[in-house]
Amino acid sequence: MKVLVATEKPFAKVAVDGIRKEIEAAGYELALLEKYTDKAQLLDAVKDANAIIIRSDIIDAEVLDAAKELKIVVRAGAGYDNVDLAAATAHNVCVMNTPGQNSNAVAELALGMMVYAVRNFYNGTSGTELMGKKLGIHAYGNVGRNVARIAKGFGMEVYAYDAFCPKEVIEKDGVKALDSAEELYKTCQVVSLHIPATAETKNSINYALLKDMPKGAMLVNTARKEVINEAELIKLMEERADFKYITDIMPAANAEFAEKFAGRYFSTPKKMGAQTAEANINAGIAAAKQIVGFLKDGCEKFRVNK
Ligand code: NAD
C-alpha cells in the first residue's frame, strides 16, 4: 500500500517523521509530494497512491480521476471544503478529517487577535479590556469549545449558539446557550466565528445579522472567508465607525477593507490558525493513524462523506 503526503504547504519535519513512523510500522510505503507548484505534479503523484494525506490541497474530480488506486483521502485539519465530497463518493473514495487536533491552536489565535484588536493593534494608544465583555461563540464545535475555555479565563461573559449541539452540552461548560444566531449577535459585543463553510453557511454572515451587534462590536473570523458576505460587511462598516473586523482568512476584498477601515480591520497575511508545531504534529499523526485504521480494520470513524 502506498500512502502519499501531498502538501503544497508542507508539514513540519517532525510531523512528517511521525507520519512516516505510523505508516511504515503498518508495513506501508510513504511517498512525499511537498511544495508542488503545478497541479500536473499532483495528478502524476496520485496515480498509484492508495491513500493521500493533504492539508489545504485541492482534491477535485480531476485528481480523483487520475488516482485510480485511491481508497481514502484524509484532510489533516478540520475544514474539508477543499475536497469534492460528491466526486469522492462517486469514485468510492472515503474522505476523513482529523477533528479536534488543531482546535486549541485556532482558539489561542482567536483570543490573541481579540486582545490585539481591543488594544488598538499595539499602536501605543489606550485600548479596552476583554474582561466583562460579552463573547458570542458562533458554533460550539472543537474550536468553539476551546475559545470558551480560554475566554472564561479572561473573565469574559461567554454565550454560544450552535445549530446542532444540544443546549445542555453547551451549558454544562458554564456557557449560556442561545436559541438563534440572531440572538447571539444582538447580545454580544464580540462574536467569534466557528461555523464550517457549507452550502447553508456560505455568505450567511450578512448585514441583517451584524447590524444589531452592540456598540463597539467586533467580529473575529478564524473559520472561512466564504461564510462572510463581504459586500454587506463593507456596507455595514461604512455605516458603523465602531465596528471592527478581525480575520485569519484574508477576504477577497482585502485591499478595500484595508484602505477603508484602517485601525479597525486586520487580516493575517496567510491563514495561520492551525500553524503551530503542536497542531501540525497532532493532525499529521492522527491522519496517518486514521489511514492505517481504515486500510487494516475498515474503521470509518471520522468519515465525512457518508
Ligand atoms: P467542528 O466540526 O468541530 O465544529 C463545527 C460546529 O459547527 C459543530 O458543532 C456544528 O454543529 C456547528 N454548525 C454546523 N453548521 C452550523 C450552522 N449552520 N449554524 C451553527 N452551527 C453550525 O469544527 P471546528 O474544528 O470547531 O472548526 C470550525 C471551522 O473552523 C472549520 O470548519 C474550519 O473551516 C475552520 N478552521 C479554521 C482553521 C484556521 O486555520 N483558521 C483551522 C481549523 C478550522
Count of helical stretches: 12
CATH topology of the largest domain: Rossmann fold
Major sheet: order of its strands?
8-7-6-9-10-11-12
Q: Output the helix-strand order.
A: EHEHEHEHEHEHEHEHEHEHEHEH
Distance between the termini: 23 Å
What structural class should be given to the helix and strand makeup?
A: alpha/beta
| Low-confidence runs of at least 5 consecutive residues | none
C-alpha geometry: elongated
Specify Rg, calculated over alpha carbons: 20 Å
Q: Hetero groups bound?
A: nicotinamide-adenine-dinucleotide
Provide the helix percentage. Answer: 25-40%
Spell out the CATH superfamily of the largest domain.
NAD(P)-binding Rossmann-like Domain
**Main beta sheet, described?**
7 strands, parallel
**The CATH C-level class name of the largest domain:** Alpha Beta
Instruction: Write the CATH architecture name of the largest domain.
Output: 3-Layer(aba) Sandwich
By DSSP, the count of extended strands is 12
Overall average pLDDT = 97
Number of domains: 2
β-strand percent reads 15-25%
What does this protein structure show overall?
The chain has twelve helices and twelve strands. Helices cover 37% and strands 17% of the residues. Strand 3, helix 3 (61-66) and strand 4 (72-75) form a beta-alpha-beta unit. With 306 residues, it is an alpha/beta fold. Helix 1 runs parallel beside helix 12 (277-297) and helix 5 (103-118) crosses helix 6. It has helices spanning 13-25, 39-45, 61-66, 85-90, 103-118, 142-153, 167-171, 181-187, 207-210, 230-239, 254-260, 277-297, and strands at residues 2-7, 29-34, 51-54, 72-75, 94-97, 134-138, 157-161, 176-177, 190-193, 218-221, 244-247, 265-267. Strands 8-7-6-9-10-11-12 form a seven-stranded parallel beta sheet, sandwiched between helices. The protein has a five-stranded parallel beta sheet with strand order 2-1-3-4-5, sandwiched between helices. The protein folds into two domains: 2-101 and 275-297, NAD(P)-binding Rossmann-like Domain (Rossmann fold), CATH 3.40.50.720; 103-267, NAD(P)-binding Rossmann-like Domain (Rossmann fold). The two termini are 23 Å apart. The structure holds nicotinamide-adenine-dinucleotide (NAD).
